[in-house]
Design a protein that fits this description.
The protein is α/β, with parallel strands linked by helices. The chain is 54% helix and 16% strand. It has a five-stranded parallel beta sheet with strand order 2-1-3-4-5, sandwiched between helices.
Length: 154
């Protein structure tokens, strides 16, 4: 069940810390990370991982709040849950991309996080404007690879 999967990630956190920091490219400039997820435990786990990368971490509990936070802080990277109340991650990402275009902003990296790891969802994520997608339960190497891939290919 979902709680045991999240717990498994929490147990791995001490091992994530050393590996993530040591394997980051030296020239990688990190500043702000926005985590948009309706699950408090997921926000906490992802926040701890983000802090280990040196990010200043911000949180939003749903997609609408995520868009509002995005406009306010303009983060470098967004971890976006796909299914949330109020507004889902796909709609939020589309609004963020429209906002960036309208305001001539550099494109932020958006990482979609989903429990539905099908090609259909991957296509939906890309169509909405997400740069990368990982499946739940989130694994330490997935987050690391996604961050490095998204930030070094800009």
């Amino acid at each position: 069940d979902e709680e045991s999967k999240v717990f498994e990630v929490l147990l791995d956190l001490p091992y994530i810390t050393k590996k993530l920091i040591s394997e980051l490219p030296n020239n990688l400039k990190l500043e702000t990370l926005l985590i948009v997820d309706d699950n408090k435990i997921n926000r906490k786990v992802l926040g701890r991982i983000g802090e280990q990368f040196g990010y200043q971490v911000f949180f939003a509990e749903n997609g609408l709040s995520g868009v509002k936070h995005f406009i306010k802080i303009k983060p470098d990277i967004v971890f976006m849950d796909i299914q949330m109340p109020v507004m889902d991650g796909l709609q939020s990402t589309e609004l963020i991309r429209k906002y960036e275009l309208k305001n001539h902003l550099e494109r932020s990296c958006i990482l979609g996080i989903t429990a539905h790891g099908t090609h259909l969802y991957e296509d939906k994520c890309k169509a909405a404007g997400m740069d990368f997608m990982v499946n739940k339960p989130v694994k330490k190497d997935q987050i690391q690879d996604a961050i490095i891939s998204m930030t070094t290919n800009r």
